[in-house]
Model the fold of this input.
Amino acid sequence: MVLPCADPATGIRVDLIFSFSPYKQQALGWVRTVKLGAAEVRFASVEYLLIHKVVAGHPRDLEDAASVLAKNPLADLSYVRHWLGQLSTALSEPLGERFEQLVTELR
Done:
């Protein structure tokens, strides 16, 4: 469940993600807090972002995932593979195959 929002004054887009599943609850533990001006903003981890993009599976999401992979060679791919395996079973989707194709294309 994602609620896309935008600040009308700046045009900055923000996706609010609501978490109800065990996976998303665990993913909240992987957030990174960054101070921006006077505010602290929580960002999804690289691993969570990869999983989210692969699950979405749209061409733009897969391009984003490939870019994230290329820019983050130290990402915990075993964590990503674990959750994609779990979600593949639950969603009856070949998520692991989709991810491995991205990894192979980057090599």
